[in-house]
Sequence to fold (338 residues):
Amino acid sequence: MAVRVRLIGLILVMFALLGSSIRAADTLPATLTDAEFWKTIETFSESGGRFDFEMYMSNEVTFQNIIPDLVARVPLGTAYIGVAPEQNFTYITTLRPKIAFIVDIRRENMLEMLMYKALFEMSANRPEFVSRLFSRRLVSAQSDPQASVERVFGNLNSGRGDTQFYAQNVQAIKDRLQKTHGFPLTAEDLRTIEYIYSLFFRGGPDASLTTYGTSYRQLMSQTDGRRKNWNFLASEANFNFVKQMHQKNLIIPIVGDFAGPKAIRAVAKYLTDRGAVVGAFYVSNVEEYIGSPRAVWSAYCRNIATLPINAASTFIRFGRGGRGSFLNPMQPFIKGGC
Fold:
């Protein structure tokens, strides 16, 4: 009888803990108002800085190779943190996080993410999105939801972009951010957004918009090495998930140094206060740049240690010299003192 009572008590405790964890996860917002979104950007961001290379798109062609292992490790519906531009969208659509923070030392990256936000929101489907992104008219207005990435890009008019279409899109992006959302962008911010957008217009889908990189079209056509393309443009379902996240203001770009005094810690506090856990942190190869001096690396380690994690929390890293993309658990990294 005593054993049975203890067993019932244990089951009740387990259900109580499960209920507590569910309630904690549910405290993340289902959506943010425009005012909340912009306030988060402003209050979490640092002053920003420079990076040695131009990075207006990813150059990590192995970025999908780790996805089968990533989805096996990280449960859906956690929080996501990343760096740099569009590669995050693929990891986001793969992991289906409840909220995502993109932390990058360059203010230009935050503004590029806002540019992307406007383009996602204005586009009904993938063909419209790539058409607007590169200011190339579509050959056919008919949209096939089952079309491959190659077919989506093949539907763009070849050659130089349409200058009139470009001018319309630039204005539409600005109007979306300023008038629809009411974001108080400065004149310099608007010039930077227009400059970044002009690079996509002038370069087109076959240009490399990053130092030491491949083309946008080729990057979108990569697979996981097993012939599966997980990209955010690989299907309408993937595209729509990212679009909905943008519409709900749940992909939040922050200006911040991984070893800085505020950005990572502000994200950590926000998530901790809401009982959320970081499922994945895409750090790319940023650690290579902050490994020295030791004081900078130590500051980074202290920042990472403030993040709410569990045994499933995973770093997504990239190594130069042929190593490519790889995964590491976050918990041993933090417990070991970095």
Summary: Strands lie at 79-82, 99-104, 251-255, 278-284, 314-319, 324-329. The longest strand covers residues 278-284. Residues 29-335 form one domain.
